[in-house]
Amino acid sequence: MYIVLLGPPGAGKGTQAQRIAAATQLLHISTGDMFRENVKNETALGKLANQYMAKGELVPDEVTIKMLLERISRTDAKAGAMFDGFPRNVVQAEALDEALRGNGAKVDFALLISVRDAELMARLGGRWICRTCGKLYHEKNDPPKKHGICDACGGELYQREDDRPEVVASRLEKQKPPAALIEHYRKAGTLKEINGEQPLDAVTSALLEAIR
Ligand SMILES: [Zn+2]
């Protein structure tokens, strides 16, 4: 069985991937781990990818795809795998389809953990820090008693650049699964959408139910 796990940043994809891997014994292939392994072992692809990552640039599709194809060609991936962080777009999805087809396999399920943008904004942003004592607050989960003022020391609260709503919104737009990718799996009839706004355990149960 091959599963693709999709979700925007803040949807809890990493946590759910680990839980599904533990519950199903499926091999968990995370793009992040794959990059790190290739860089650490100084493979040709790792060196190439590192040139982009060092500059803070996106690793080109062809490099990511080659690395992924190498990974799924190993014997431990023959019985199935769960992909986390891959594919990021339709080009990558088609490359995966083609590679699996070559092995007489396919993506059986594309699991999309859905969370509304407003909720993601609240999860990813909303962080405030005390300028004086460094205490952290969160607008939604752990707000100060008085807006903009630290409960502990009365200091002024501020937001880091990364936590400002406009920065969070632009990161979200760049990192969420593109509509065309979701459509790719919808058309293939493999898309299963899971409500990611439920408690963690309920999301895990719904994901496991979807692939049963
Ligand atoms: Zn303070």
Key features of this structure:
single chain, 212 residues, alpha/beta, Rossmann fold, 5-stranded parallel β-sheet, 3-stranded antiparallel β-sheet, binds zinc ion
Write the layout of secondary structure elements.
Elements: E1 2-6, H1 13-24, E2 28-30, H2 31-40, H3 44-54, H4 61-72, E3 81-84, H5 90-102, E4 109-114, H6 117-124, E5 127-130, E6 136-138, E7 157-158, H7 165-175, H8 179-188, E8 191-195, H9 200-210
Parallel strand pairs: 1-3, 1-4, 2-3, 4-8
Antiparallel strand pairs: 5-6, 5-7
The structure holds zinc ion.
Zinc ion binds at residues 130, 132-133, 135, 150, 152-153, 155.
Main sheet properties? 5 strands, parallel
Poorly predicted tracts of residues: none
If helices are DSSP runs of H or I spanning 4 or more residues, what is the number of helices? 9
Domains (count): 1
CATH architecture: 3-Layer(aba) Sandwich
- Tell me the name of the CATH homologous superfamily: P-loop containing nucleotide triphosphate hydrolases
Secondary-structure element string: EHEHHHEHEHEEEHHEH
Give, in spatial order, the strands making up the sheet with the most strands: 2-3-1-4-8
Q: Indicate the structural class.
A: alpha/beta
Shape: globular
- At the third CATH level, what is the topology name? Rossmann fold
Bound molecules: zinc ion
CATH level 1 class label: Alpha Beta
Report the β-strand fraction as a percent range.
15-25%
